[in-house]
Design a protein that fits this description.
heterodimer; A: mainly beta; six-stranded mixed sheet; four-stranded antiparallel sheet; B: globular
């Protein structure tokens, strides 16, 4: 069975600083995909970045990058130059390629960007 | 990009009544949609997988007679909370993937905040 662990319930970062949100996972499937979503207080789920298990390079999308360490089974999200609008709940999620394409989510990290 | 629309955004209902939530894929066909439930400050928990033209697959512990799912077309899935009680108050959110590949992005509806009084 898949499992996603986010050990940081809450994080604070100063505006314009970088922040790393931790995510570790466990799966027996050699093929899987890792996702990060942002959920502001409005509740919508906003897709940020994707990393495939066979991808050789770490994924990047603008200010978001994924620090993928396969051997350690970690997929940390790095947000550079934090902005006040980045304050939200962040979820790490995984889909293994044997599933029906549903996502398994971690418990989330509440990020607060301080002015 | 692909859009999933969920309606209503919020609903307040009396205990004992039923509430229907709609999830529509606006610009793609979705043979499979997923329904999640989220309590405050918690993660999304998969309730069921909605399959077009067939019965939904429910996760362990989810009452299929209480949470009725219908996926009558390739663009619409509905979740009906029957005989709602205060403990059913939660945030319900649906998702669908635009592609068939396993890397396909999952698009989410806006979510529905259900309050049962």
């Amino acid at each position: 069975a898949q499992k996603i662990t986010q050990t940081q319930p809450g994080m604070f970062v100063q505006e314009k600083e970088a922040v790393t949100l931790d995510c570790t996972y466990d799966t027996s499937d050699p093929s899987y995909g890792l996702f990060w979503y942002k959920q502001p207080s409005s509740g919508e789920m906003i897709f940020l970045i994707y990393q495939g298990s066979y991808d050789q390079q770490n994924a990047t999308e603008g200010r978001y990058s994924l620090n993928f360490q396969k051997a350690r089974k970690s997929a940390n999200l790095v947000i550079s130059a934090s902005q006040l609008g980045d304050s939200a709940m962040y979820f790490c999620a995984m889909r293994d390629f044997g599933s029906a394409r549903q996502l398994t989510f971690g418990s989330g990290t509440q990020l607060t960007v301080l002015p | 990009g692909a859009v999933v629309s969920q309606h209503p955004s919020w609903v307040i209902c009396k205990s004992g009544t039923s509430v229907k939530i709609e999830c529509r894929s606006l610009d793609f066909q979705a043979t499979t949609m997923f329904w999640y439930r989220q309590f405050p400050k918690q993660s999304l928990m998969l309730m069921a997988t909605s399959n077009e033209g067939s019965k939904a697959t429910y996760e362990q512990g989810v009452e299929k007679d209480k949470f009725l799912i219908n996926h009558a077309s390739l663009t619409l899935s509905t979740l009906t909370v029957t005989s709602a009680h205060p403990e059913d108050s939660s945030f319900y959110i649906c998702s669908a993937s635009a592609g068939t590949g396993n890397t396909a992005e999952a698009f989410f509806g806006q979510g529905t905040r259900l309050t049962v009084v």
